[in-house]
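I would love for you to help me understand the pair of lines that follows before we discuss the fold together.
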Amino acid sequence: MPVLMISGTGTEIGKTVTTAAVAATALAAGRSVAVLKPAQTGVRVDEPGDAAEVARLAGAVTQAELARYPDALGPATAARRAGRAPVRPYEVAEAAEKLAAGHDLVLVEGAGGLLVRFDEEGGTLADAARLLGAPVLVVVQAGLGTLNTTTLTAEALRARGLDSPGVVIGSWPTAPDLADRCNVAELPEAAGAPLLGAIPQGAAALPPADFRAAAPGWLAPRLAGTWSAERFTAAQG
């Protein structure tokens, strides 16, 4: 898995902290890691973006960013409002391939959900994944509504011939309610792929050293971690 795309079922669901956890776990396993953020929106030039946040939490990763737009909008709209060139799927694929030549693992973090537009032609992260032949890890919510959005994302992946190793819950609540607990058992069926981890709510607020030490315990062996979906599901009743 030299290139892994990290998308989600929406925005603000934990893609960046999940990317950081995957990166930290890979680093702990002795792999070299690069993190590519094709289109960073809603951040000023002098502010750290998502790739920098991954590096802060995970450690020594190579950071790459193709474009940055000030408005907190979808990349295509943000690029148009800023009067700047959009990011094209082929540019994402080319950048990821260059990084893969010098790293064991390249993580490409999308913006929002899988089909958020990068450009005016409707290019998406899914198009970049198809060009690369790369799998797409899907970050999902824990609570009500997640089964629908997870199913829709899975159908979009299959319709495009894209593979997904599984899904990760991007923020597992400290006090899960009934819907959260029931969804744990149902998410694999909705996704048509296994549950590969659950990132604790507030993980990004941990000191980086603690984050790095804990990250392998949040992810399944498929992502080089030690987390068990069976034990986690059983614990939720």
